[in-house]
Design a protein that fits this description.
CATH architecture of one domain: 3-Layer(aba) Sandwich
Largest sheet: 6 strands, mixed
Helix content: 25-40%
CATH topology of one domain: Rossmann fold
Distance between the termini: 61 Å
Structural class: alpha/beta
Order of helices and strands: EEEHEHEHEHEHEHEHHEHEHHEHHEHH
């Protein structure tokens, strides 16, 4: 689908596709991509998508700002169409009658970030770019490296030296050039921008590149197909719990639902609830104080994927929640860790950032902010294998026993 124009999230100015590549040239605000179907007389037909046999984000090509990237039979073609579960154990434990969990760990590099990186890779092929650069605590970098490897492109990733070793190993395994920065994620982000300007590398950074949100919006399209279409017309609006760090996932999900509303495929927007760690809550702080600007914090949460001092898409993340009459909730690291084995008992292995969304739901339920009858979906954004150290700290140690029945009988009760 052809791009109509960009709009700035700060000043609202419009720009053509040729006027700017990344952010607003006036104030540096994040850009939102607008496609021709918003005003075109002939619009995409939902039946074409519903009848598609493509089990990936590429089933939504009529709603995306890129061409088909090709590369069939590669991980690039396996992004998206992740499962939605209705875990009976959690529904019964929580007393929630309509609970869904969308498991993004099934993506090729095991996180939702593959959606953004796949779109960026397709954009690179359209514009003849060969080198992509990104800053990441691990997931965005792994997604970028995985998609780049699938398309034969070079990836250069800046990560803070504190990034989990499993994530760094994943980056290196995909053949990316990995540079560990002796500083924070925010410093790595700034360095990647400078490197992009200096060497002409294509910058994939969250929020800075407008196509990241266009990739992440595909999760909203899948939620529409998998859940929204099947809710009764008289049902209360779906509530979607989303972990928030930089803010690009929740702004992308919001953009996807806005597209569906503009097309007339849904009649109202779902309610978006952003969940931040208490120790990385810059956007939530702005929501609580009714501010229109994001004040940086010193993030120290163990949930590395949402540990951000200055959210790079914070304003749109704030706007997304306000526009859908949602809210923000903050959770302590202790409750994030507790959520990992809770999800695990339903067969879902989540990293801390992904578990934060479930911890937010639990807190809302405990404080009376969630009606047990409300249709509710939790977006589980990444695999627990991304941060094995956190998972180990969240569960009791396994006992070591002698290889005898007598030793077994001392520790097990049947």
């Amino acid at each position: 689908m052809r791009i109509s124009h960009y709009t700035c999230s700060v000043c609202g100015a419009e720009f053509s596709e040729t006027e700017t590549q990344y952010v607003c040239p006036r104030d540096g605000g994040n850009l939102t991509v607008h496609l021709d179907f918003e005003t075109a007389a002939v619009r995409p037909n939902p039946n074409d998508i519903l009848e598609s046999r493509e089990a990936s984000i590429w089933r939504y090509l009529p709603l995306l700002p890129v061409e088909d990237p090709g590369y069939h039979n590669t991980p690039l073609r396996q992004v998206g169409w992740t499962p939605v579960y209705r875990p009976q154990t959690l529904q019964q434990e929580l007393g929630l009658h309509r609970l869904w969990i969308k498991d993004e760990s099934r993506n090729p590099s095991a996180s939702l970030k593959d959606r953004a990186s796949a779109l960026v890779t397709a954009r690179m092929k359209m514009t003849n770019q060969e080198v992509v650069v990104a800053a990441s605590t691990g997931n965005a970098g792994a997604a970028t490296a995985c998609m780049a490897a699938s398309a034969g492109l070079r990836a250069i990733i800046f990560a803070p030296r504190t990034a989990p070793q499993a994530k760094v190993a994943q980056l290196l395994s995909y053949g990316a050039r990995v540079l560990l920065v002796d500083g924070s994620y925010d410093q790595a982000f700034d360095l990647s921008l400078a490197a992009s300007d200096t060497f002409g590398w294509y910058n994939r950074n969250t929020g800075h590149n407008p196509f990241t949100a266009e990739g992440k919006k595909t999760a909203a399209f899948e939620i529409w197909e998998q859940v929204l279409r099947h809710l009764p017309a008289e049902s209360e609006a779906l509530r979607v719990y989303i972990p928030v760090g930089d803010g690009n996932i929740i702004s992308g999900i919001h953009k996807g639902f806005q597209d569906l509303l503009a097309l007339g495929w849904i009649e109202r927007l779902p309610v978006l609830i952003g969940v931040q760690a208490e120790k990385s809550a810059a956007i939530a702080n702005a929501f609580f104080t009714k501010a229109d600007a994001i004040t940086p914090v010193q993030a120290t949460t163990l949930a590395d994927s949402i540990s951000v001092d200055l959210p790079r898409d914070g304003l749109r993340a704030l706007q997304a929640v306000r526009a859908t009459h949602g809210h923000y909730v903050t959770v302590p690291d202790e409750e994030i860790l507790m959520a990992i084995p809770e999800l695990g008992r339903a067969g879902i292995f989540a990293e801390p950032a992904a578990a934060a969304a479930f911890a937010g739901l639990r807190k809302d339920l405990r404080e009376g902010q969630l009606n047990p009858d409300s249709p509710t979906l939790v977006l589980c954004t990444g695999s627990g294998l991304k941060d094995a150290r956190a998972a180990i700290s969240a569960v009791p140690s396994a006992p070591i026993i002698e290889p005898t029945i007598q030793a077994l009988m001392k520790v097990i009760h049947v």
